[in-house]
Sequence to fold (124 residues):
Amino acid sequence: QVQLVESGGGLVQPGGSLRLSCAVSGRTFSSYAMGWFRQALGKEREFVAAIWWSAGITYYGKSVKGRFTISRDNAKNTAYLQMNSLKPEDTAVYYCAAKIGWYDLGLPSKYDSWGQGTQVTVSS
Fold:
């Protein structure tokens, strides 16, 4: 398993931007997919985006496609989620997660490692 630590959450106005970071450690992870999920109060955990660490291939959930961008920095062992044009419905706790293999990306149960989460609140 790998260890994941998120940061970068906070309060932002509608239309604003935030960048979340996920620091990765523990073992080599070239064969890993890194995912971002979010969970709003009283709702199920929702897939946001994923990236295949070695190839940089990305995949997005429908609700964020075109507004959010997932990326990674190999030198810093860090994954990022750039969130633009934020809406109140983006308010949630955001989690990064890791799994081996580029499949079942949208299923939280398929991920082996999770961070502690970071709160994002979009409000005026």
Remarks:
- The chain is about 0% helix and 50% strand.
- The longest strand covers residues 92-100.
